[in-house]
Amino acid sequence: MEICRIVFKVLVCWFPVIFIHFDGGVMGFHNIYPEYQSLTAVKVNHSHKPVYHFQPKQNWINDPNAPMYYKGFYHLFYQYNPKGAVWGNIVWAHSVSKDMINWIPLKPAMVPSEWFDKYGCWSGSATILPGDKPLILYTGVVNPKPEPGYQVQNYAIPANYSDPYLQDWVKPKNNPIIKPTKENVSAFRDPTTAWKVNGQWEMTLGSKVDMVGVSYLYRSPDFIKWTLVDHPLHQKENVGMWECPDFYPVSVKGDKGLDTTVTEGDIKHVFKVSLDSTRYDTYTIGKYDTKNDRYIPDEGMIDSWASLRYDWGNFYASKSFFDPSKHRRIIWGWANESSTKTESVRKGWAGIQLIPRTVWLDPSGKQLLQWPVTELETLRGKHVKLINEVLEQGDKIEVRGITAAQADVDVVFRFRGLDKAEEYDTKWDKLFPPETLAKSICHMMGTTKQGGLGPFGLLTLTSKDFEEYTPVFFRVFNTQDNTKHKVLMCSDAFPSTLNHEEYRPSFGGFVDVDLSENKISLRSLIDHSVVESFGAEGKTVITSRVYPTLAVGDKVHLHVFNNGTEAVTVEKLDAWSMKEPRMN
Ligand code: DQQ
Asked: Is the Cβ atom of 156 under 6 angstroms away from ligand 1?
């Protein structure tokens, strides 16, 4: 009997954890497939290709690089393989935009050309120097060995500052400006935007020492001569390599963004890393102690694999920038495909950048809030509404009249109270590691397990007879001490496709929201193979990549549903068909 229980536990309960942990939404480093790297598809397959998310016409993309605003244009650079739909041959592709929604493609800003970046121009950031002069710091790979490559830091400057498109970039001959120490030659990359402190420039980059994640700190009087500071900006044991760190101030009052050079005042700092071992982005909020030149996470902040995340789904290598034209801070994140490499090769494309999000500090000071940039709303076309529609247990209502495969849906759910919320089983806290707890509960229960208050939410990318659907939903739990309710948000790719060879993770995150008004909101941006969802006005965000076989194009449906015993009212739902922007 006992053995049965153990076998059951391992198979049923641990299965999602094992599955999720070793097969993240994003590939572990960038897998190398020499046979596919330079295989350009003759014809691009559009059936799952997003329409209003940033992407090139074809081929592979990964990290967003050096986003910035310059002379009326937003610039986005990104890691791009010009020859194939898997990682390799990486250059800095470049597009510009007036609104971050409609894009003009330009020639690549940087390609491997010098001894100091011969084997790759990897990720980096822009700093706007005094006099409105942008400068890029990036990682150059000088040798493919030791794997994944011998890394140095370089800089590049515009050839012509009066060109608002910044089409030509010069890599000065005095590169590299930073060389690794012997210990970290192949784990030494992704320099951040620099900031000024105590009269000097500083920047940090990602590294590791064994399993300790380290963000080395460099200092410079002139942006050319850089010295390693004798202590890192921050480090943490048992987390592994830190890629693409990001370090920036946020205001403690209001939602206005701040330039990276702001180091004092009514502010806190955000320290974000991309965890190479788990392949997701985590952040902490804390204080930048300028005197000792260290970042110190606030008390109570979890600083491990179980830290807060911008996005609990398919989201990696993000980078933020300050937009001086609208006084906001914006983050860009990359969503890789969840499908196989052979699928990518067949489709001729892989990877998108998610919709840029404005980011600011929650009034609690304990987390960030995110919201799609308002410019996205210019794509809203045909509009439909639902008002005060009651969903009893088991009910679904179809949202008709829009292009359900390419939509923006914003809904507020209301309920009578929290009495019927089901009990939170504290055994789960022991069964699942904290970093996979939410997604494991989402996977265990799905939408079909009836609850008390919830599951309720949206069924996106649904086929006519529900053979395929990607549900985005909430479940509210009662905690044993009855002091607080636990709100779980899920975005579940598991039932999304009949093609069970696809990776179909159930993603989840808890939502730290006050339910005293008996309401919760959900906004989902649906774009063919991506569903990007914002719970409780941007407190918890989850992105899923999915590849339905039946729910494709005009065969896609959208529903609201409830499978809890407590009735839930759709107080207000607005849904729009989304138009196609000018996309590269
Ligand atoms: N991708 C880049 C690296 C970075 C990684 C290479 C993160 O610079 O560490 O394409 O996805």
From this structure: no
Helices (H) and strands (E) in the chain, counts: 6, 37
CA of 257 to the centre of ligand 1 (A): 26
How many Å lie between the centroid of ligand 1 and the Cα of residue 114?
A: 19
- Tell me what pLDDT residue 3 has: 37
Strands 422-423 and 470-478 come out as parallel
Of the candidates 326, 320, 95, 366, which has an alpha carbon nearest to the alpha carbon of residue 192? 320
454 and 564 in contact (C-beta within 8 Å)?
yes
pLDDT-flagged residues of the chain (< 50) = 1-25
Please write down the HEC assignment for all residues of 1-36. CHHHHHHHHHHHHHHHHHHHHHCCCCCCCCCCCHHH
The predicted structure's pLDDT at residue 26 = 55
**CA 30 – CA 87 distance, rounded (Å):** 6
Q: Which of 243, 226, 125 is nearest to 188 (CA)?
A: 243
DSSP 38: T
As a whole number of angstroms, the distance between CA 583 and CA 426 comes to: 48
The structure tokens 């707890």 sit at 437
pLDDT at 27: 55
Q: Which pLDDT does position 189 carry in this prediction?
A: 98
Determine the residue type at 388. N
CA distance 468 to 370: 29
Q: Where are the alpha helices (DSSP H) in 148-297?
A: none
Write out the two tokens for 34. Answer: 């020499």
Q: Give me the domains of the chain, ranges plus CATH numbers.
A: 3-24+374-578 (2.60.120.560), 59-372 (2.115.10.20)
| CA distance linking residue 507 with residue 16, whole number of Å | 11
**Catalytic site residue 323?**
no
For residue 75, the SS3 value is strand
Q: Is the CB of 246 under 6 A from ligand 1?
A: no
Q: Tokens for 10? A: 């391992």
23, 63, 298, 465: the active-site residue:
63
Q: In b/e form, how buried is each residue of 541-565, taking b as 16+ CB within 10 angstroms?
A: bbbbbbbbebbbeeebbbbbbbbbe
CA-to-CA dists, residue 525 to 51, 334, 411, 545, angstroms: 11, 15, 12, 12
The answer to whether the peptide bond before residue 455 is cis (omega within 30 degrees of 0) is: yes
Does the predicted TM-score (pTM) go above 0.90? yes
148: CA distance to ligand 1 center in Å? 10
26, 29, 30, 280, best to mutate for ligand 1 pocket (most atoms within 8 Å of CB): 30
Index of the ligand 1 atom closest to the CA of residue 334: 11
What secondary structure does DSSP assign to 413-450, as a single string?
EEES-STTPEEP-THHHHHS-GGGHHHHHHHHHTTTS-
pLDDT of 1:
32
